[in-house]
Structures are given as C-alpha cells and as structure tokens.
Amino acid sequence: MTVRDGSSGAENSTTFSLGIAPALAVTQSLYSKVLSMNSNVNLTAINVTGGVSPVVSISPSLPQGLNLNASTGEITGIPTVETGATTYTISVTDQNASPV
C-alpha cells in the first residue's frame, strides 16, 4: 500500500498480509435423546466446520457426570443423577464471528 501527499508528492509505502478463513458453520446432528443413568454416553450433538479456533458452549450446564468438549462439541461421560427433560442451547463462537 502506498500513501502519497497530493501537494508535496511525498509518499510512504508498507506491505500487509490479508487472510480469509473459511466461514464458521454449524449443523445440528442430534435433536432429542433420552439417556440412561450410569451408562456410558458419547454423543455428537453438532458438527462444526470452518472458522478460526471455534469454541463450543452449552446452557444450562449438563447433568452431573457429563462433559462437553469445547473444541468438538462432543458430549461424553456417565450421567449419575436423574433429571427431567431439559432443553439445551449449544453456541459456537470463533475468533472472528459472533456466536452461532
């Protein structure tokens, strides 16, 4: 890039790099699931592609014994407490975008 002063003709140049990351995209792969207490769980509720270092979060918190992998969205563990049906919201944010 070069900047030039129109009246004096003085100019200054510099270079810069520009990169374009693939767009962050999320697809839902699980809509409803009933789990058994004290049984191993390994679920993929969403699939995340693109973006820059996407981070997955869930609200409200998962039942005791279950964990969310913030990089992949995978839910794993062994539920140890009985709970009623709960609706969860999964959000994905990357370094360049608003939550999806």
TrEMBL record:
Molecular function (Gene Ontology), one example: calcium ion binding
Organism of provenance: Salmonella enterica subsp. enterica serovar Kentucky
Pfam families: He_PIG
Any single Gene Ontology cellular-component annotation: membrane
Transmembrane segments: none
Superkingdom of the source species: Bacteria
Stated name of the protein: Hemagglutinin
